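It is worth pausing here to work through a concrete case rather than discussing structure prediction in the abstract. The textbook approach is simple: state the sequence, then state the predicted structure, then interpret. We follow exactly that order.
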Amino acid sequence: MFPRDVPLALVLVSMAWMTVARAVLVFAQKLPPTCRNCGLKLERRYLGESVCNCHH
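Step two, the predicted structure:
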């Protein structure tokens, strides 16, 4: 997936920043929270929208 010349540290730091950015956007209510298992939204914004049915 990644070229071999990209250092692992750069990939890990990039993934960490993406995770922090998503958390900030969820906290600011710009993105909906999602389930860790299935990736679906935890709460419905519109009628008929599919949401998570996992049993936590």
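Step three, interpretation. The chain has a mean pLDDT of 85. Residues 8-27 form the longest helix (20 residues).
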